[in-house]
Every structure is written in C-alpha cells, then in structure tokens.
Amino acid sequence: MVLLPAILSGLLAGMARARSFGRPYQLPELRFLWLVFIAFLPQFAILYLPGLRRQIPDSWSAILLSASQLILLGFAWLNRTQPGMGILFAGAALNFTVMAANRGFMPISPRTAGRLDPDLDVPPGSRFGLKDILLPPEATRFEWLADRFLPPAWFPYQVAFSAGDVLIALGVFVLLARQDATTRNST
Amino acid sequence: MKNQLNLLALSASKIDRRHIQAFFLMVSLVMLVLGVGAPEDGGGNIR
Known about the structure:
The structure holds 2 protein chains of 2 kinds. Chain A is mostly helical. In chain A, 56% of the residues lie in helices and 4% in strands. Chain A has helices spanning 4-20, 33-48, 50-55, 58-78, 85-100, 110-116, 163-177, 181-186, and strands at 106-108, 127-128, 132-134. In chain A, helix 1 packs parallel to helix 7 (163-177). Chain B has a domain at 2-32. The interface between A and B is large, with 58 and 25 residues.
C-alpha cells in the first residue's frame, strides 16, 4: 500500500502544475494497457484471494509471479518514452532480479520482518506477507536489493521496502506529475 | 418508470468517454505498481 500514495501525490502534483500553467491536466497516453490487466490477473488470484492462495503451491506461485512481472516489465518497456516510465522500469527490473534470484519471492531478513511482526515465529525459507520470503542476509542473493529498508521505529506505519520500490514510486510520481500540455506538445 | 429510464439514459450519455478512459488508466497504473512493487507491511501473512 505504500506505493499508492505515490500515485495520488503524482496526480495532485500534475494537476497543480497544469493549473499553474493555466492548462487542463492530461493523463499520460499509455499503450498496450491490456497487458497490465492480463499480467495482474494471476497475481490477484494467487496473492489477494485467500482461498486460492493457500491451495496453490509456492513453486507455482513463484512461476506465476515471475511471469506476471515479466509481462509488466514488457509493458513498461513499450511505454519507456513517457516521462518517469524509465525510472519505473528500472525499479521493476531490480525487484524482478532479486525475486528471480531468490526462489521467485522478495527476500526479507528475519530481523526486518521482526519489526513488522514482533511475534514472528516461522523458520527461514517460509513465505512472509504477500510476496516476501524469510531469508537470512547470508543466504540472500542480491541482498542489497531486498526488502531491507524501514521507516524510523517511531513512525506509526511500519513497512519494509526495497530499492526497486523506491524507484517505482518515484517513476509513477514523475509519470503523473509531468503530464500536462507542455509535455504533450514537446513529444 | 419510463421517466426514470430516460433520466438514467441521459445521465449515462453525460459520462464523457475520456472519463472512462481516465478511470481505466488509473486502475491500470494501480495494478502496475502493485504488480511490480514488493513492499511488505506485514499484513496478510501466510503461515
């Protein structure tokens, strides 16, 4: 859920920018939108439908998740000329790399996961949350790309995120914030 | 009843095509960032 505020703030920033120019705000013209719907469908099924989520083996979930992310990467690449989409593509590629190298899921260390769930009592190698897998740092490939960043402990909303997530949030913000008549006319 | 149907049809015709396109674009962007992003807030743990 931490990525959704990036969409909202990008939209508001874009509207404010267009208003300051005295021009109507225009959303980006993205091509091949149907790819996103096709790609997200398996993720929705295996991650957000609890009944189905428990029935599908982790190995199949990992394959479906990887395939879904590959299609989304393709979508971002096909729209790379849009402002911010290159940043989003880079973030998505980093997340895909670290997940593909770690059994198809995003690695998170027991220490980081312990901040999110102080009562955590599951062995390493277990799934954690939606897309994460609990792995000690020494057993993690590309550990620097894992969900290793946390907000300060005093912050009321605790979330672990990766370097890729930061780029994705920045990319979608730029994508929505820089869409106005000025951008449209210059392309 | 007929008046209500007419009113409904009139309201539907007022929905601009661009609004529908904008709605689908925003839904797509939400799906895109949820699909490629992998932050974890500890909710919905699989045990």
